């Protein structure tokens, strides 16, 4: 029996490799920086890839590094040092962030989370500087400075965007268990939707989330559920909601492929209006169909 997570994680690996390669090649080909082939804009990527994609992001970064080294004929010791830094920074941040932050999410809404990130980044960058000693003479402090500076100036804003606007679900270490703030099922029974609205109100009240934001989430969930149940009356919708810098709402339902974000041929003006309401509230919406299941992710 195939593990459904393997294709997803292989996709992570390939996307991370492509991101690393594309961030490295233009800089090295132009010769804009002269500090060494292992230093460049790409220096923010090991921490980001490790933080969100764990070992798969680290492996992808190493693949991208090796590919760039092969294309540009980078000296072996420089390429080896870069791979070592990717492992130290990526795996280090992946293993340390979650226990230090006390959360199984990646978010920087609180100042203490930014300070934790900065402290871990500095410590891991210093470790990379120490690791560089057997590889290249004089590479210690340039390595520390590059990974620390770019991890803060570029990596921190990128991590905030990925964690809020994109609401990426990170690959978690074995000792972390992902728990949704609100989860449950919605079906054709109106009581199921009422029960879900009550859960949302109770959960958001505990977090002192403004009433307006609760209404926006409830409205979006109701409109999507109505569209899905109108098209697939016997559907059971698994709803998972996470509260953070933005609201991440995920819908999963089995059956034939149906994208509620698309207008059907026989839909009337009221149906189209509900779709426009969903799109108006959403900062980002993504639909996919895999293994007989519909997946819809909306960030508001």
What does this protein look like?
- The protein has 300 residues and is α+β, with helices and mostly antiparallel strands.
- The chain is built from eight helices and five strands; from the N terminus they run αααααβααββαββ.
- The protein has helices at residues 5-30, 45-72, 76-101, 111-131, 140-164, 190-206, 211-231, 269-281; strands at 182-186, 237-243, 247-254, 284-290, 293-299.
- It has a five-stranded antiparallel β-sheet with strand order 1-2-3-5-4, with helices on one face.
- β4 (284-290) and β5 form a beta hairpin.
- α2 runs antiparallel to α3, α4 (111-131) packs antiparallel against α5 (140-164) and α7 (211-231) crosses α8 (269-281).
Rounded to the nearest angstrom, the distance between the terminal CA atoms is 37 Å
Overall geometry comes to: elongated
Series of H and E elements? HHHHHEHHEEHEE
The helix/strand class is: alpha+beta
Tally of strands: 5
Characterize the biggest β-sheet: 5 strands, antiparallel
Mean pLDDT value: 88
Fraction of residues in β-strands: 5-15%
Percent of residues in helices comes to: 55-70%
The radius of gyration computed from the alpha-carbon positions, rounded to a whole number of angstroms, is 22 Å
Strand arrangement, major sheet: 1-2-3-5-4
Give unreliable regions as ranges.
Answer: none
The number of helical elements comes to 8
């Amino acid at each position: 029996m195939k593990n459904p997570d393997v294709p997803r994680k292989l996709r992570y690996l390939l996307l991370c490799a492509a991101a690393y390669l594309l961030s490295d090649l233009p800089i090295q080909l132009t010769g804009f920086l002269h500090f060494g082939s292992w230093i460049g804009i790409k220096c923010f990527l090991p921490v980001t890839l490790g933080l969100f994609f764990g070992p798969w992001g680290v492996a992808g970064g190493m693949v991208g590094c090796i590919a760039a080294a092969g294309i540009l004929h980078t000296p072996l010791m420089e390429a080896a040092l870069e791979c070592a830094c990717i492992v130290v920074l990526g795996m280090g941040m992946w293993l340390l962030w979650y226990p230090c932050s006390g959360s199984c999410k990646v978010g920087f809404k609180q100042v203490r989370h930014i300070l934790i990130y900065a402290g871990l980044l500095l410590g891991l960058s210093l470790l990379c500087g120490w690791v560089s000693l057997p590889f290249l003479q004089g590479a210690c402090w340039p390595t520390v400075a590059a990974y620390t500076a770019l991890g803060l100036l570029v990596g921190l804003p990128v991590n905030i965007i990925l964690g809020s606007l994109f609401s990426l679900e990170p690959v978690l270490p074995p000792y972390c268990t992902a728990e949704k703030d609100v989860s449950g099922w919605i079906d054709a029974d109106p009581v199921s939707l009422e029960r879900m609205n009550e859960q949302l109100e109770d959960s958001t009240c505990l977090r002192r989330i403004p009433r307006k934001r609760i209404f926006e989430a409830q409205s979006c969930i109701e409109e999507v559920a109505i569209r899905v149940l109108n098209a697939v009356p016997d559907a059971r919708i698994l709803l998972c909601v996470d509260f953070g810098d933005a609201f991440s709402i995920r819908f999963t339902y089995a059956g034939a492929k149906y994208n509620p974000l698309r207008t059907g041929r026989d839909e009337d003006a009221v149906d189209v209006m509900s779709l426009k309401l969903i799109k108006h509230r959403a900062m980002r919406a993504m639909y996919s169909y895999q293994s007989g299941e519909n997946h819809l992710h909306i960030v508001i």
